[in-house]
Design a protein that fits this description.
mainly alpha; single chain; 5 helices; 0% strand
């Protein structure tokens, strides 16, 4: 079970992508684009090297309510400005 008192690597990756791309760096920002465009074979290849990042993106893109829950969790943990809109 996930720790409710800290962000998971998947959650942190997506938060950085959505709100703090400067902190991500060029490689991780480009990685989001690769994950978003990858076909089934290549997504599995990416998953081998970047499991948290692929999981985070898949949850962001496909799991209803996941992103909103991450934003609220980040606000509660004071890792995101309270006025941030997700």
């Amino acid at each position: 079970m996930a720790d409710k008192n800290k962000l998971t690597p998947s959650e942190k990756f997506i938060l950085d992508w959505q709100f703090q791309e400067v902190k991500m760096g060029d490689f991780r920002y480009a990685l989001v684009g690769c994950i978003a465009r990858a076909d089934h074979i290549n997504i599995e290849r990416l998953r081998k090297g970047f499991p948290a990042e692929v999981s985070g993106y898949e949850r962001y893109a496909n799991e209803e309510g996941w992103w909103q829950n991450v934003v609220e969790k980040a606000k509660r943990l004071k890792e995101l400005h309270p006025d941030a809109v997700g």
